[in-house]
Design a protein that fits this description.
By secondary structure, the chain is an alpha+beta fold. The protein has four helices and ten strands, in the order H-H-E-E-E-E-H-E-E-E-E-E-H-E. Strand 6 (about 140-150) and strand 7 (about 150-155) form a beta hairpin.
Length: about 200
């Protein structure tokens, strides 16, 4: 265990779990109709992280995208789960991907475009533009869940009992206007992922 200030920044700075100004700026910039790309783009943002994870492991990953009633979407992958560590006090600290900017996509950085033609903006964009988002995180060293409302967490990281195997599950709802489901080309656009899309699943799925 070590202090979080000593942990290396790769995609996110570990120093803080929440950047309220960043989240507010995202909403102010992208809440206009069609500008953010709808839930389709938010799904692509999540898939881009799952693709990064699979690539880092050198193996094909598997992700399921489920379109639920009333605009809810669940995206689940089979990666290692979001990096979560213990600090010097033994407190579980999850890499702050949900509510702080990804340092690779900050203003002035080279732009990376997703297959809908819009720039990749980072996972915090999904959180900031979702009225509710639940992040479930399953790792070898434990499992946790946290709920966000427009990027602001309801409470501290909560342990989850049991295990489903490693990976992450994002369930969110957004009111931004724009395309909703993935296209067939979207599902094939990530070289390190097999993507299954399910619409209006049968009860129990």
């Amino acid at each position: 265990m070590s202090h979080r200030s000593s942990w290396e920044t790769t995609t996110h700075n570990w120093d803080a779990d929440l950047d309220i100004e960043h989240l507010a700026e995202v909403r102010a910039r992208l809440e206009k109709p069609y500008l953010a790309g709808g839930s389709r783009h938010l799904i692509l943002e999540i898939l881009a992280y799952a693709n990064d994870e699979a690539k880092s492991q050198g193996r094909k990953g598997f992700t399921t995208v489920i379109h639920l009633p009333n605009g809810w979407v669940t995206v689940a992958d089979d990666g290692r789960g979001t990096d979560t560590r213990r600090d010097t006090d033994g407190i579980a600290i999850r890499k702050p991907v949900m509510a702080t900017p990804d340092v690779r996509f900050t203003p002035g950085s080279p732009q990376h475009f997703l297959c809908d033609g819009l720039p990749r903006r980072g996972m915090s964009t999904v959180t900031a533009l979702s009225s509710v988002l639940v992040h479930e995180n399953y790792r070898e060293n434990g499992s946790w869940s946290q709920t966000y409302r427009f990027g602001i967490p309801d409470r501290a990281l909560a342990p989850v009992a049991g295990s489903r195997g490693s990976g992450t599950v994002f369930t969110f709802r957004t009111d931004i206007i724009g395309p909703a489901p993935l296209t067939e080309a979207d599902a094939k656009a990530f070289g390190w992922l097999d993507v299954q899309q399910i619409r209006n699943p049968e009860p129990g799925l």
